[in-house]
Amino acid sequence: MKKFLSIFLAAALGAAVLTGCGGNTGSAPAPQGGGAAPSAAGEKTHLKFMGWGNDAEVATFQAMIDQFEEKYPDVEVEYIVVPNSDFDTKLQNMIAAGDQPDVFYCSVDWVMKYAATGNLLDLTSYVDNNEIFEADNIWSNALDIYRYDGASLGNGPIYALPKDVSAFAVVYNKDLFKAAGITPPTEEDPWDWNDYREAAVKLTSGDVYGTGMYSLESAVWSNGADWLDKDLSKVAFTDPKFTEALQYVADLRCKDHAAPTSAEEASLSSYDRFMQGKLGMMGVGSWSTADLWSCEFDWDVMDWPVSPSTGDKAVWFGSAGLAVSPSSKNAGAACDLAAFLAFNEDAQRTSYTTGMSVPTLKDMAYGEYSAMDKGPANKNGFLNVLADYGRLATQSRTFNQEWWSEFNSGIDAVYDGEMTAQEYCDSMAAPVQQLLDKSIEQQKALNQ
């Protein structure tokens, strides 16, 4: 029955068939310690690992794989790189052909469908009993987002390990701040929205803009609102607290003219504008650290402002998971590979020193990473997101994200001042609810 439902779901989504294993996935086997034994005399255990990434990420992961093979000489890893845009379809086709990779990237947005169709190995017992890492030393939210109990993320078995943790902070041009006489906020004296807005306007001059588009997630969540209700079953974005936050974000562009217009953004992104020294502040992910090292001006990161209404701050954090196939013939070695890439000290050192990520190990993050002489100087700007106020995106907590795409389909009308936030949200409530209902029904169908 589950196999039929997975086929039905795939057809409904317009995607390739997920064959699944039928029933629930099994738990990971006991860790092998030194990896799986060779399959025969003189032969090595062969693992297929599939991921995506730009040249820098691929090079970093290849170096980490080399470190794994050095520590586990009886295991060889075949590294398959697939473009991000094609990855989900490629993975589903490999599953259908009975050729699922032993270890593979799994976006948090895909965990529900792949777990429900039996295509993810339950890693809970491995996390609790392994020789590579201690779960207490891992950012708890980075593990919890890969838990799924059949109803919601954040609870139940663990179906992937975080290949990285991506914190999203505010980066600012220190040279522009100094020229404008602006003192950046501190943890003890944070900015609120009004402070940020005042600075953005003050920084805007000539061909320099004060800010890129402000994170809507940060504004909405810090103001005590969300896109959906707490049960993720009803739209909630018509709430005045939500529309106030959306209007604040839009006004930075359409009223204050402190952010590039839609047309300007299309011709030169805020990211490129910042790298050229022509943007004062913007949201930036920790994955951009290596790029920022090449800036010809001083920069640093800071926490997101608090809402003046609540005094709270919030923003999203991201991650892609490392999942293991339940059909792997070498599941023990596959679990070791996933854990090594996610948590081994040498591998994590390779990752953060190349500017790819913040360490997944808390002691390393607060220790040698924080002491590193390369920027940002205020590394707590990233670490506070992971330790304190970062949240998993609302759309990642639903079975599919079609409702999210629909909500955003015309939002430039608000950002460009053609509609008010309240008008737009009221107009989108019904169509978004229809797609959310569809997502809920698909999830129920696979879990019956």
How would you summarize this macromolecular structure in one to three sentences?
The protein has 20 helices and 13 strands.
Task: Give the termini distance in whole angstroms.
Answer: 9 Å
What is the tally of helical segments? 20
- Share in helix: 40-55%
Shape designation: globular
- The rounded Rg comes to 23 Å
Low confidence ranges: 1-38
Biggest pleated-sheet summary = 6 strands, mixed
Structural class: alpha/beta
Strand content: 5-15%
Number of strands: 13
Mean pLDDT: 91
What can you tell me about this protein's structure?
Helix content is 43%, strand content 14%. With 448 residues, it is α/β, with parallel strands linked by helices. The strands form 3 sheets. Strands 7, 8, 9, 10, 11 and 13 form a 6-stranded mixed beta sheet that branches. Helix 9 packs antiparallel against helix 10 and helix 18 packs antiparallel against helix 20.
